[in-house]
Amino acid sequence: MALDPAAPLDGQLAEKHGLDITILGPEALITFVLNYGEKSQALRTLFTQEMLARGYLAGASVYVSYAHKAVAVKQYLKAVDDVFEILAKAIREKAVRRYLKGPVVHTGFKRLS
């Protein structure tokens, strides 16, 4: 089965939950950007936290390959759907940080000392 590499994050799940995201390529390395200004990093942290709770070490980038079987893609998309729902709720409630169980991740590679 040929998988469309853009399918997992073609914006449909973001649209479903009313999230403002931008999708970047190349197709083998799809990346999404949350367009929420100063709240974006906290939202990325929340995305990673909630995906990890569902068994995925995931960030804003998805490395798609033909090694991914349809069932794995379907399970991943179900997790993204669930997590996007949480992000949308946190945004509506204006309480993104309240959903976090730890600090907001740092951007880029910076020396912390």
Question: What labels describe this entry?
Answer:
113 residues; alpha+beta; three-stranded antiparallel β-sheet; 3 strands
Question: If you had to describe this structure to a student in words, what would you say it looks like?
Answer:
The protein has 113 residues and is an alpha+beta fold. It has helices at residues 12-16, 40-53, 70-92, 96-99; strands at residues 21-24, 29-34, 61-63. Strands 1-2-3 form a 3-stranded antiparallel beta sheet. Helix 2 (40-53) packs across helix 3.
State which percent range the strand residues make up.
Answer: 5-15%
The major pleated sheet works out as: 3 strands, antiparallel
Oligomer: single chain
Sequence stretches where pLDDT stays below 50 over 5 or more residues: 1-9
Strand order of the largest sheet: 1-2-3
Radius of gyration: 14 Å
Mean pLDDT value: 87
Distance between the termini: 49 Å
In N-to-C order, the SSE pattern is: HEEHEHH
Please give the share of residues in helix.
Answer: 40-55%
Quickly give the structural class: alpha+beta
What is the number of E strands?
A: 3
Per the principal axes of the C-alpha atoms, what is the gross shape? Answer: globular
Number of helices: 4
What does the secondary structure layout of this molecule look like, with pairings?
Elements: H1 12-16, E1 21-24, E2 29-34, H2 40-53, E3 61-63, H3 70-92, H4 96-99
Antiparallel strand pairs: 1-2, 2-3
Helix pairs in contact: 2-3
